[in-house]
Amino acid sequence: MPTFKLDGQDIPFESGDTIIRAAWREGVEIPHYCWHPGLSVAANCRMCLVEIRSGRQMALPILKWDEKKKEYVPATKPKLQPACQITASEDMEVYAKSDHALKAQETTQEFLLLNHPIDCPICDQAGECKLQDYWLTSQRKLKRKKTERVHKPKTVSFGPTIVYDAERCIMCTRCIRFCDEVAKDHVLDMRERGNTNEIVVSQGRELDNDYTLMTEHVCPVGALTSKDFRFKARVWFLKSSPGVCTGCATGCNTWVDHDPRYQRVYRLRPRDNPEVNQYWMCDDGMMTYKRFHEDRIITGRVRTPSRAGDKIDEITRAESVVAAARTLRSAGSKAAVVLSAQHSSEDNFVLVQLARELFETDRFYLSARADWKGDDILRNADANPNRAGAQAVCPSKPESLAQLVKDVAAGDVDAVLSLGPASDVELGSLTGWHVNLTANAGPLTSKATVVVPVATPAECSGTFVNAEGHAAHFKKAITAPGGIEPAWLTLVEIGRELGWKPNFERLGQVRAAMPKALPAGDATEDTAAAPA
Amino acid sequence: MEPHYEALGDEQTLDLPTEPMRLNMGPSHPAMHGTIRMVLDLDGESIVDLDLQPGYLHRGFEKSCERGTWSQVFPYVDRLNYVSPMLNNVGFALAVEKLIGLEVPERCTYYRTVLGELARMSDHITCNGAAAMELGAFTPFLWLIKVRDWIWDILEQETGARLTHSFGRIGGMAAPPTDGFRESTLAIFDEIDHVMMESEALLMKNRIFLDRTQQIGNLSQEDAIAMGCTGVILRSTGVDYDVRKANPYMFYDRFDFDVPIGHDGDNYDRFVCRFEEMRQSMRIIRQALDQMPTSGSVVSEDLRYVLPNKSDVYDSIEGTIAHFKLVMEGIKVPPGEVYSFTEGGNGELGFFIVSDGSGTPYRVRVRPPCWYNLQACRDMLIGDMIADIIPTFGSINMIGGECDR
Amino acid sequence: MSKKVIKRLKSEFGDAILATSDFRGDFEARVAKKTWKKVALFLRDELQMNHIIDITAVDYPEREPELPRFEMKLIVRSMSTNDRVRIAAHLADGEKIDSLTDVWRGANWAEREIFDMFGISFNGHPDQRRILMYEEFEGHPLRKDYPIGKAQPLVPYRDVSGTEKIAPFGAEEGQPWGRIDWAARLADGDVQVSPSISQQTGGRKALSTGPETSPLAEQEE
């Protein structure tokens, strides 16, 4: 591969790469604000200016302050080029750490902070703010301006999800370019000039497309903040686990940001994966983190129908496992097993094994959420993360829940063991013995006679297979409350009560037993790029 | 009347037990400064063998340091040798600055020297005063404590606290010297001289004191060196080793001072060495105060390591960011490991610090001078009697905080 | 000034000196653990490094499995020439290293502390037992996988044979203040200070005689 030299280090590059992109691929960071690997080049922040000593150099005549003579004397300095715009070529010699480049970074940083508000204590970006990081590495001095700074509108509500603060904005235009190029919705633009610049929403519109939270994600400073996450948590208390979005069959890779002290997930962030979601996620996907904590089933439930109305008793998880086993004691070949397109492949696989080895039934159905609005950017119309995975572990193609309702009504099914809360049809007449393993409340759960709580995808590890057949692993982030275990382990416990003795103590054993036809884990599972 | 067994005649002497008696001189004991347990094997009153058991004041200092940032170590370090906390502060600050390669202004170094020597004086006063009191001499103890209180008044005027100041900072000190620093320090020195002379007059020719400290608790030179002893313990045996002279740090090579050496390694030598060291400390302080610049900053200018002025923090974004980064993420000490040593109150106080490049210390190992001195205490005591434990143990100045950490 | 120490070490031991470094004026030589004692004896006998300064260890668990987890450090100096040197050695978990107590007597307590804090055992140490922690302590605190907030099991009062020792405080002995359930006491209207007196006079039962006999426990039966 052709290489060029960056500060003496050989950096390989592909044809057409800019200097900064080639360096980024190698893991070498040239300070920048406005460049983003997923967006076009704007070169307006001027932070990535580097000295290129090969080829024909341009020198600029300048006046330099001479300390001894106490006056300005003529001198030259090389014209620095933005690394995000210059295409790399063979044998180029680039210096991002030379004196001129460092001085340029220092002065650029000083300009950017010239009118910046003193918001660090209340700004959500504190702790992951590029201005803070680059101040420490590049500037390290106080500014030289003594006059009052420019004031601009603060807390401008751009739309239902985003708040804009013009004083914090450094006009990098990442948000504008994102909306134009990725969300394909030209709704943001820049207004005025010079130091009265600000970002505005188009007249008569709001920032309300399906990817608004990504503008907050690309914003390198705290100018754009998410109304959902504002003031909820300080980022240095949050740890990130690699996860997969449970919103739809695209399976965008995520970082699950949680606070280990409170064992709560506070937000999701996109995890870079060039093959699945590039660098982005949609708003609904970002909001799926709420499912980890809202409408949770944390205790077991037993529903006893009576003439006066159903009585629902809450029992402990251990008792619910025993109750579930009791309910399924006489389940046989007429038992129906409902796989879940919302649960991991390992959960579904263990359920299939339980069904075949213990009940010896082949009646498989699939519970899933109803389709939602897809688009051609990221969202898949199928609102379930693992339909492909559930189908892959099932020996036959699972039927829909509508078919299950019919089969129960016809008397072909005498017991139901189901996974997951979701349903894409009306379940009005689903009666009979029904054990449901779920993490959240949902339509299928409300029809169950015994409900056993299981862990959400934030509380256990597993695999989701997306609509294209990519399998992605997600890792456990927080510990489930009340001793709740993942669904596959809960099924093993229920099976044990009924005399089933599988060799599934650890997740590794489940994964080793899963059919080889299942696509192997995504290579980017643990090597996803560090959060930007 | 003769003892009853003599009356029985030689053939019928009573059967007295002859194996050594085991006696516990437990951690809660007025003479065991800072909780040391001694399990003594006694033959009558003589000590045949002795098992020293430290550790009753172990607070997990080294583990606690790995939990915060580099600046958050200063309150922990104070509580190591808690009778001379300023020396610990300075020692740790010098260790981190050595690892970073950070220079501090001259005024800061002089300031650290003066405060450190004041702390050394207060350490030696406490040790000698307490040693004398335990032998029954209450009066010199109170006189010396009076002097110590004057020293603490100066330290309170400078740092805000009498004992655990947490005044050192990486890259400087927490605050500049007050206006009356030089005058108030020099003002007490004549009185200190006078009180010391009076205390010595009461003790140095006192038959009881001499009998109880001379030739008691002897330690030979070879033993002291092999045991790793440093400080007054080592110098009292006749070895001329003082870190300030052998490996001068700060500006000790600019000062003219002597190092008192004993020759027997007994309690008396240690006692006298300490008094003499106090006089040398006063010499150093006088010279340092003369040489110290009267104006200038006491902190380095480098905002990577030193907090900015509060007015800048509130008025400018750069100050806020600097403050934020230093407090939330900690000082980013470059990765590496270094061993830095100074002359603490009891000997060579070393800090072996390992940094992994983040703001949290990876390992902070304190080389406590008392640890090795206490090991030598066993050698000093075997052969002596129980009553000799009191002056001997008092003379090694075992500070529990430093020994057990 | 300590460079010549490193040079002498290299000329004497050759390849047994695995690495040397000079960082901020500290001279360090790394050896394998089997040469640890040989190097120590050489330093003491040939280079007059008779003054032991410190022995310590550092725990790098993330280095495993490529490199052993512990790193031993020995710092010595010479009284006559004022030279200093630091010797390092890698040590894996569970491996033992030679004790240096017969090279320098001061190593005794330093090695006991390393055993206590890290769990590293020393071959030939005369008295390897815990020094800072009590005997019944479980674990080795300075290891990185020992969480700082870990609770230790409560140690029952030691059973020392050959004496008539009894626990200093039975449930009804000693000062009662820490054991009084004030809320229950006041709710009942009994403001008697010492439960013992009340019990002696045949009044209310002692509130805290242990979980097996607590009146609260009885209520739940």
Main attributes?
heterotrimer; A: alpha/beta; Ubiquitin-like (UB roll); Alpha-Beta Plaits; eight-stranded mixed beta sheet; elongated; disordered C terminus; C: 221 residues; alpha/beta; Beta Polymerase, domain 2; five-stranded mixed beta sheet; 6 helices
CATH topology of the largest domain in chain A: Rossmann fold
Separation of the first and last Cα atoms of chain B: 55 Å
Total of DSSP H or I helical runs spanning 4+ residues of chain B? 17
- The share of residues in extended strands of chain B comes to 5-15%
- Under the CATH scheme, the architecture of the largest domain in chain A is 3-Layer(aba) Sandwich
Q: Helix count of chain A, per DSSP?
A: 12
Helical residue percent band of chain A: 10-25%
CATH topology of chain B, by name, is: Cytochrome-c3 Hydrogenase, chain B
Mean pLDDT of chain A comes to 89
Counted up, domains of chain A total 4
Per CATH, the architecture of chain B is Orthogonal Bundle
Query: Mind describing the biggest β-sheet of chain A?
Result: 8 strands, mixed
Task: Write structural notes for this entry.
The complex is a heterotrimer of chains A (about 525), B (about 400) and C (about 220). Chain A contains twelve helices and 25 strands. Chain A folds into four domains: about 1-115, Ubiquitin-like (UB roll), CATH 3.10.20.740; about 140-230, Alpha-Beta Plaits (2-Layer Sandwich); about 245-290, no CATH class; about 300-515, Rossmann fold. Chain A is of the alpha/beta class and about 525 residues long. In chain A, strand 18 (about 335-340), helix 8 (about 345-360) and strand 19 (about 365) form a beta-alpha-beta unit. In chain A, the strands form seven sheets. Chain A has an eight-stranded mixed β-sheet with strand order 17-16-23-22-21-18-19-20. In chain A, helix 4 packs antiparallel against helix 5 and helix 8 (about 345-360) runs parallel beside helix 11 (about 485-495). With about 400 residues, chain B is mainly alpha-helical. In chain B, helix 7 (about 180-205) packs antiparallel against helix 12. In chain B, a hairpin with a 4-residue loop joins strand 6 (about 335-345) and strand 7. Chain B has a single domain, classed as Cytochrome-c3 Hydrogenase, chain B, CATH 1.10.645.10. In chain B, about 50% of the residues lie in helices and about 10% in strands. Chain B contains 17 helices and eight strands. Chain C is α/β, with parallel strands linked by helices. Chain C has two domains: about 5-125, Beta Polymerase, domain 2; about 175-220, no CATH class. Chain C contains six helices and seven strands. Chain C is elongated, with a radius of gyration of 28 Å. Mean pLDDT of chain C is about 80; it is low at about 205-220. Chains in contact: A-B, B-C. The interface of B and C includes residues 58, 371 and 374 of B.
